[in-house]
Amino acid sequence: MPFSFRLDKETAARIRRLAAATGRTKSDVVREAVARYAPEDRSRHEAGASALDRLRAYVGVVTTEGAQYSQKTHAKFRAALEQKHRARRSR
User: Fold this and answer.
1) pLDDT, tens digit, for every residue of 33-78?
2) Among 2, 79, 87, 88, which has the minimal tally of Cβ within 10 Å of its Cβ?
3) b/e string for 35-60 if b means 16 or more Cβ within 10 A?
């Protein structure tokens, strides 16, 4: 399937040199580069992966040093709103 795109001169020259050095076409060089950059297996896996699967590398990376930020969030939010409201009244 024909597909066209614009390359800078340096990239086009690199593709041309690589194709000549390996005896392949420029299209073959680009196809291999795309296959190495974004393996089909990985993209299929990621497409069907859950949010946890996609973020697994980041889960547990950050520590709160024991702070319980997710406890009593409703009360903390309400207190912040009340404080903001009181600050506006005092103007």
Assistant:
1) 888 887 766 655 556 778 888 888 888 777 778 887 788 888 989 9
2) 2
3) eeeeeeeeeeeeeeeeeeeeeeeeee
Whether residue 15 is predicted with pLDDT greater than 90 in this model: the reply is: yes
pLDDT at 88 over 60: yes
| Domain segments of the chain as ranges | 1-57
Instruction: Give Cβ neighbours of residue 52 (< 8 Å, ≥ 6 apart).
Output: 59
- CA 86 to CA 43: how far, in whole Å? 52
Gap between the Cα atoms of 71 and 30, Å rounded: 52
Domain at 1-57: CATH architecture: Orthogonal Bundle (1.10)
48 SS3 class: helix
Rounded-to-integer distance, Cα 91 and Cα 87, Å: 7
